[in-house]
Structure formats: C-alpha cells, structure tokens
Amino acid sequence: MKKNSFDVVVVGGGMVGLSLALGLARAGVPVALIERARLSDMAAARFDGRGSAVAAGSQRILGGLGLWEGVADHAEPILEIRIADGMSPLFLHYDHAEISDGPLGWIVENAVTRRALAAAAEKSSLQVFEGTELADCHFGEDAAMLDLADGQTVTARLVVAADGRDSPLRAAAGIEAVRWNYPQTGIVCAVHHEVPHRGIAQEHFLPAGPFAILPMTENRSSIVWTERHDLAPDILALDDEAFTSELRQRFGNFLGRVDVGPMRWSYPLSVVHSKRYIAPRLALAGDAAHAIHPIAGQGFNIGLRDVAALAEVIMDTLRLGLDPGAITALERYERWRKPDNMMMIGVTDALNRLFSNDIPPLRIARDIGLAAVDNAAPLKKVFMRHAMGLIGDLPRLTRGEPL
User: What is the pLDDT of residue 358?
Assistant: First the structure.
C-alpha cells in the first residue's frame, strides 16, 4: 500500500527530477516522485536522435548517485573539442590530453538515460505516483499538501519543482521568471557517417547560429543546428533528400558520406530564469529554475549541478535533525546555484549574440580571439576545466565524494 507522507516530493520525472529523486532514495530519504507519464514508457524509449552532453563533473555526479553504470556502456567519450568561426582557418582546440587522463565529457542518447533512470527506479525504494498530474498544491507552515488528478493527496516537508521551463509549481508559488526569445530555432537530428569521428566534437559558428556535431556511438553524431526562426519551418518541411542536402552544406565532407536519421526535432530557442529558486517548502531545479541557449551544451549539466547541490543541502539538513523545507535551509541552495547559473546564462547569451552574425569587424575580432585563447595554454586550461564542470564551489558529488 502506498504511503502518502514524505520528507521530499519531486514533481517532474525528467532526467533532472528523476536523478534527484533516485539519489535521495539511495541515501535513505523518504522521497516520492510525481510524474504524469509512466516510467514503463520511459523504459521503452527508443533512439530518436536526441542526446545530451555529460561533462566530466556531471559524470561524477551520476556516478555518486549510482546512475552512471546504467549509461556507461552507451556513452561516447569526448576527447577533443574544435570550435571554428565558419570557414575561418583560425580555431580553438581543446584536447583532453592537455589537462586530464580522462575524457572532457561524454555524449549520451537521451533515450539511454531515460531507460537507465527508469530501470533504477524499478529497483529503488522510490515511491512513484505515475500517470497522474498535480492538480493543486498548498504550502503550509509545516508541510506542503499536493492534490493529484487521480484523487490522491500527498504531503511533504519539501517539494522540488522539476516540471520544466513553464513550471506550474513555480507559477503556483508566485515566483516570477525573466524570459526572452531568440530569433532562432533549434533543429536536432542524428547522422551516420563513413569516417570515424575519433571522439571529436565540432562547433561551427555560422551566421544563423552555431552548428554542433557531437560524437555518438557506432559512427554516429548528434546534430544541434541553430537556424533563423523564419527559415527553419521551410527547412523542416523538406523531404529527406533535400533536408540531407541542406545539412551536408553545413556539415562538410570531413567525415565522408553523411546520412540523416529518420527523426527530426525542433524547438524555439529562448532563455528562462527564475527570479527566485526557493519559497517556503519549495525549491526549483533544472529547467524550472533556468533554461539556456544550447550553444555550449550545458543545459543538462547545470541541471545536474542543481541536483548535487540540492541533495547535499537536504542531506546535511536532515543529518542535523532539521526541517529540509525550512526557508533557512533552502537559502543555502539558492546562494550556491544562482550565481553559477546566471553566469552560464550570460556567457551563452553573449556567445550567441557575438557569433550569430556575419559582420566583418566582429568576425575578424572573434577569429583573433579564438586563436589567442588557443595559444594561451594557462587560460585555455581554465576554460577547459570550466567546460568540464570542475571549477567553482563544487558539491561533494562533483568532487567524487559520497553524498
């Protein structure tokens, strides 16, 4: 029989929300997950072309949560990153051998991650309320009461909103978010190519926006193609042959013949940032707190850093016998994560605005800048460690320590 009272309830079973819930369950915290879909559907997910970058620091987080083992065999290491401005001969090159024995990160299919998370949930003590939505939520002095659409009521000392960039829980708590839209659309697909990618991730800055080629297993690459908002619908409407021709013009021939997979995804690009990450009995994590431009592939990574920080705050609070939903406990989480996320939003926004144009003076300046960083070894190593998620006030999980 299901119980209905918990220390923590996570609303939203995406990759960030379920990772947090599973990590807390593994640590012995009474925790539940509310998810409108069914985990069995997540477990049945097949490859659809979408993947996520998992930085070295994020891999440590997943390992500490007991989740990396489920994806490791299907993760493609990123050994090098090459960043170029269109067809310029000047570029920035990151090589893992310059800084670490291990990869800079990995590319993991989202379907693989979802299957691993669903499988871990099956074996865990996590209680899942699935196939139902949150109908209403009341934040009381001592607990929050969550009414589900199927008639059940759940109470928790702390509610974590991991319910996406348009978070209903964020709105219910009266927390405002700053948002702006880019005149760009993200097109996502996967390709198969003749020549091995050798673990090299490529990012080409084109006038419409960045075009990323991310190495995957089995001689495949994931494509994150930023296109002008007004042109994207016509490109997406092309038949397979014409779409592949358009992609090859941007991809080039350095990996031989390129064939596009059957699935294409698109989404308008925007930034969402919550003005507050916390309220009494509530904490926001992942896209509910921040959604950024995909230019640096950091969206999932900063979500996992939220997971590591929030899990640490919750565990430290419970070990002291204190209330994890008290605002004084949650303030530590907000102070910890908000500056890092704001910096990432600022950096990705600035890079997108700087490189998504073809203005000659700017093009010359940024090409010189890329080359200068590439030749400044100490500065480049700092940038590499930042991209790996290994700089800053790191949670225990990111340092390779237990929760």
Answer: 85
Q: Cα separation of 144 and 166, whole Å?
A: 21
Distance CA 238, CA 107 (A): 28
How far apart are alpha carbons 281 and 146 in whole angstroms?
A: 12
Mean of per-residue pLDDT scores for the chain: 94
80-120: per-residue pLDDT in tens? 999 998 777 778 999 999 987 799 999 999 999 999 999 99
Q: Cα 350 to chain center, whole Å?
A: 19
**What average pLDDT does this structure show over 155-178?**
97
Question: 48 or 15: whose pLDDT is higher?
Answer: 15
**Per mean pLDDT, which of 2-6, 250-254, 333-337 is the most reliable?**
333-337
- Here the tokens at position 84 are 């170029």
Q: What is the DSSP pairing of strand 127-130 with strand 91-95?
A: unpaired
**What are 58's two structure tokens?**
């994020």
pTM: 0.95
Whether residue 1 has pLDDT greater than 50: no
Instruction: Show the domains of the chain with their CATH numbers.
Output: 5-179+270-399 (3.50.50.60)
The span from the CA of 202 to the CA of 255, in Å, is: 12
- pLDDT category at 2 given cuts 50, 70, 90 is low
**CA distance linking residue 80 with residue 171, whole number of Å:** 41
d(C-alpha 382, C-alpha 132), whole Å: 45
- Residue 242 is encoded by which pair of tokens? 């014409």
